[in-house]
Design a protein that fits this description.
Layout (H helix, E strand, L loop, with lengths): L6 E5 L5 E3 L4 E3 L17 E4 L3 E16 L10 H4 L7 E5 L2 E2 L3 H9 L5 E8 L2 E8 L1 E3 L4 E3 L2 E16 L5 E4 L15 E7 L1 E7 L8 E7 L5 E7 L2 E6 L11 E2 L9 E10 L2 E12 L10 E5 L2 H7 L10 E4 L2 E10 L2 E9 H6 L5
Antiparallel strand pairs: 1-16, 2-12, 3-12, 4-12, 4-19, 5-6, 5-12, 5-14, 6-7, 6-8, 8-9, 10-11, 12-13, 13-18, 14-17, 15-16, 17-18, 20-21, 20-23, 21-22, 22-25, 23-24, 24-25
Length: 352
Amino acid sequence: MENLKAAARFSIKTFCLLSFLLALFFLVFPVQAADISAAPASQKLIPLGRTTGIKLFSEGTMVVGFAEVGDEQQPSPAQQAGLECGDIILSVNGTEISSNETLVDALSTLPDGQAEVTFKRDGEERICSVSAVYDSEGQTWRMGAWVRDSMAGIGTITYVDPQTGVFGALGHGVCDVDTGELMPFENGSLMPSSVIGVRKGREGEPGELTGSFDMTRDQGTLSLNTISGIYGHIDDAEVYEGQEALELVPKSGIQTGKATILANVDGEKTESYDIEILRIYPANDDSMRDMMIQVTDRSLLEKTGGIVQGMSGSPIIQNGRLVGAVTHVLINDPTRGYGISIERMIAGTQLQ
């Protein structure tokens, strides 16, 4: 048998996630999440700060771009039919679409290039008719669309419920790198990971972690992807067993001043680093930022230059209590960034 322990390496890009299967340029075209409670049951949660491999498989296939097709380079039939970036293709002429491959198969069997495409936009199912263009060189119909059916990368787990194993991570949603839309997914999971390198952040040039993960075994299950984080259940209790659970602080209890973050920037080791909470944003701020923070720890500044891509989800602790998580870095000053309150992050488990 092939060696079952296969490792995948990724450099952590925008929103800390990369494409797992690259968007496929399907000029060949003729033309819900797991039912697991994501809300923690405990009043105290374990601040984890460990990186994990994340993989998501889309519900259907997401349209991420368009191109001209055919021998005469005609405009994209998919775009002319009304499809837009971010739409999720669910079926073609009644054939269910669950991946890029099933979409290719469904379109390749059309007799005349006419396809009735069912897709989802803003949570609503719609139908459009696509008239494909035949490509004599490829001997197939083409629709002229880029699609993506999965993504993978590395993110940081913020907290774990010691009673149930429920977790929250990232402090922001997993978004498609091309459309910027939240990735709608049919299923997803966590995989064991390790940080193998760091590119330091500089003014105007965000740094990033480089990580690897084992794609052959799952560490947990994803159930939600929302604007305030990703959520699910950790199946491998060894990830958090024996670690101390902390009290939670509502946003109203967060103070400016000294705090710490737990971050995993080397191997599988999590360490505590000093930060300063510089500002608390108003409760009516719609940008999903609750605080501005600054890294003051000399050792972390030497390793990373401050906050780098891949640290999103690192828990923020103040006075021995869990107050929130790191979310974004300021491009012009990598020592500073934004954080989300733990109150808002947990509230995200109710977002569908």
